[in-house]
Amino acid sequence: VSCCTEPIYADKQLAVREDIETGAPGIDYIISCDAVPRIDDLRVIANKAVVKGTVSISALYGVHTDEHSELEKMTADIPVSQILDMPGLSDQHSCTPEFIVRNCELVPKSDSGVISCELKMECRCSAVQTSTVAIPCDAYSTEYETELTTASLKIPTDQRRADSQTSVKSTVACDGGEVDSIWDCRGELCSVSCRPDGENGLLVTGQVCMTVIGKCAGGTPFVAEKQEAFEHTIPVSNVTPDTSVNCR
Length: 248
What we know:
Elements: E1 2-4, E2 8-21, E3 29-45, E4 48-64, E5 69-85, E6 94-108, E7 114-128, E8 130-132, E9 179-196, E10 202-216, E11 221-234
Antiparallel strand pairs: 1-8, 2-7, 3-4, 4-5, 6-7, 9-10, 10-11
């Protein structure tokens, strides 16, 4: 039968520091920030995995003017890379790399539009290889009485990655009156679950926590929030009730 070999794991901590130029005349404070990592490239070289990626930084910050304080939003991409020691790794393995942001700290430099960014991250990678093994299915002896007992056995197969996109639309109400401007909006996934859905593939359900930050017509800032349920099907072949799913 075909199955996976013993997985090879590796993880490593890393710190990334970068100065981000916003173009603002001066930044007083940081309201909120997000750091979203992605994998751009993976190479296997002599028992090592070379993982390269990008962390997309977004931040909402306050800029002081002569009349009042105004909020602005900036986005920037920071390149990251890491080399992981994985003894036994070869180009025959199927690798699953991952960057995880453990902490993101943004500090504005005084009297400038520069933001100092410090990221504390973790790089993980797992690798498996498909192999063929023989499993005993019968027993017989000409010298001794024999009694055969059989049992079912679940054998793990190679991991498969399924990526898909979906859109969720909703209306968020502002209780403070007429909306003058929107400074920032974001959506975070919560209570997400994924399960096999027969021939359809995988069924993903959960909630999207929507947050809108802006200013009313009278100049008063507001924060409006709302949760919206979603359901999305990812078409994947060869999915059975015994399929194990890890949703990220």
